[in-house]
Design goal:
Distance between the termini: 31 Å
Helix content: 25-40%
Radius of gyration: 13 Å
Order of helices and strands: EHEHE
Number of helices: 2
Strand order of the largest sheet: 1-2-3
């Protein structure tokens, strides 16, 4: 039985609107994490009540990558 490995890094990003800079940053994180550290890193994006569902693209990224969490 595999032991549950502990996280090496938990990164929390508060977000309010401005999706493009956030998407660019997340794409950079994804390129560094994917294939190497999926089980050791988590990125939590905390939406601070952004208007008009402006961060929907972030939600879609979180659906694709298990280490991204959109709240």
């Amino acid at each position: 039985e595999k032991e549950k490995q502990s996280m090496l890094l938990s990164l929390v990003i508060p977000a309010y609107a401005r999706p493009q800079p956030l998407i660019q940053a997340l794409e950079r994180f994804i390129s560094q994490i994917s294939g190497k550290f999926e089980d050791k890193v988590e990125v939590i994006i905390a939406d601070a009540a952004s208007p008009d569902n402006s961060l929907w693209e972030v939600s879609e990224l979180a659906d694709r990558y298990g280490y991204l969490h959109y709240k």
